[in-house]
Design goal:
Pfam families: PRK
Strand order of the largest sheet: 1-9-8-7-2-6-3
Family: Belongs to the prokaryotic pantothenate kinase family.
CATH topology: Rossmann fold
Oligomer: single chain
Radius of gyration: 20 Å
CATH class: Alpha Beta
Number of helices: 9
Helix content: 40-55%
Strand content: 15-25%
Keywords: ATP-binding, Coenzyme A biosynthesis, Cytoplasm, Kinase, Nucleotide-binding, Transferase
Subcellular location: Cytoplasm
Number of strands: 9
Mean pLDDT: 95
CATH superfamily: P-loop containing nucleotide triphosphate hydrolases
CATH architecture: 3-Layer(aba) Sandwich
GO molecular function: ATP binding; pantothenate kinase activity
Number of domains: 1
Distance between the termini: 15 Å
Order of helices and strands: EHHHEHEHHEEEEHHHEE
Shape: globular
């Protein structure tokens, strides 16, 4: 658990005063398009939480670029283009994707001359067939179900300004998409979101957090996240009704109570266990913690001092 010495806590009103007066925002329609299923975010949230957050990111980015320039001056070398990488972590269903998409939109709008890309670490999960071969089907989402070596190589390639390929993942098929990749080609800013952003691979000398220049942790009470997870599962079932290829199609046409009982068990045995054992312990590595209440509203922001 973070100490008062490690973080300075800002209430919503106090944090909201830190936004830039000229910061460009998003419209209500744009915000709705950015929102994940079962998540909620308002224009007030954008104004009071996310605009000050983008201001902080811009401050850290300027410091990052100044350091590169100063180092090059000292070493008498040309300044090399180096991407600024933002990592976003937190539990399944806590709203990481909404945060990532919203930050990408705001940063792109506020810094139109810069390339801002985002992706999820879901693509670095082992394919379902490989999980089954290794006897890890019931451990999907836990650290051992990811190709951590591939994720490390990807992040190092990005940092070294090489073109990097990230595997794509489909929630509809509940699997990695064969042969599908997102190309990351020398962006100015890369936003990476995933439950394992702040973790370290087994036998790896590298903490993935070492490869990020700013890290966020989206925090909430486990009971609240469980409710959001179940709400999202219900929505997945509704969306799968007319798509026989959707992973959730059989559940959508079966007994809904049985499907919900299965989802509840999945939350307890997999997602909650993963949160308590592997995700929550990484929270104190984050540069910024965004704390959500039961209605998805962010009531406080914790900024790391050291």
């Amino acid at each position: 658990m973070q100490t008062q010495e490690q973080y300075r806590e800002y209430g919503r009103a106090e944090w909201g005063k830190l936004r830039g007066m000229e910061a460009k925002s998003v419209s209500a329609a744009e915000l709705e398009a950015l929102r994940s299923r079962a998540d909620r975010v308002s224009l007030d949230d954008v104004r009071e939480i996310y605009l000050p957050l983008t201001e902080l990111i811009r401050v850290r980015l300027r410091s990052f670029l100044n350091k590169l320039a100063n180092d090059s001056t000292f070493l008498r070398t040309n300044t090399e283009h180096t991407p600024f990488i933002i990592g976003i972590s937190g539990s399944v269903a806590v709203g990481k994707s909404t945060t990532a998409r919203l930050l990408q939109k705001l940063l792109s709008r506020q810094m139109p001359g810069m390339s801002v890309q985002m992706l999820t670490t879901d693509g670095f999960l082992l394919p379902n067939a490989e999980l089954e071969r290794r006897g890890l089907t019931d451990r999907k989402g836990f650290p051992e179900s990811y190709d951590m070596h591939a994720l490390t190589k990807f992040l190092v390639d990005v940092k070294m300004n090489r073109t990097a390929l990230a595997p794509e993942y489909s929630h509809a098929s509940y699997d990695v998409v064969p042969g599908a990749f997102t190309e990351v080609k020398q962006p100015d800013i890369l936003i990476v979101e995933g439950i394992n952003v702040l973790q370290t691979g087994k036998d790896s000398p590298i903490y993935y957090s070492d490869l990020y220049d700013l890290t966020l942790y989206v925090d909430a009470a486990a009971k609240d996240i469980e409710g959001w997870f179940m709400e999202r599962f219900n929505q997945f079932l509704d969306l799968a009704v007319d798509d026989p290829d959707d992973f959730y199609y059989p559940y959508a046409h079966g007994d809904r109570d049985e499907a919900l009982a299965m989802a509840s068990d999945l939350w307890r045995t997999v997602n909650l266990a993963n949160l308590n054992e592997y995700i929550l312990p990484t929270r104190d590595r984050a540069s910024v913690i965004l704390h959500k209440t039961s209605n998805h509203s962010i009531d406080k922001v914790l900024l790391r001092r050291f």
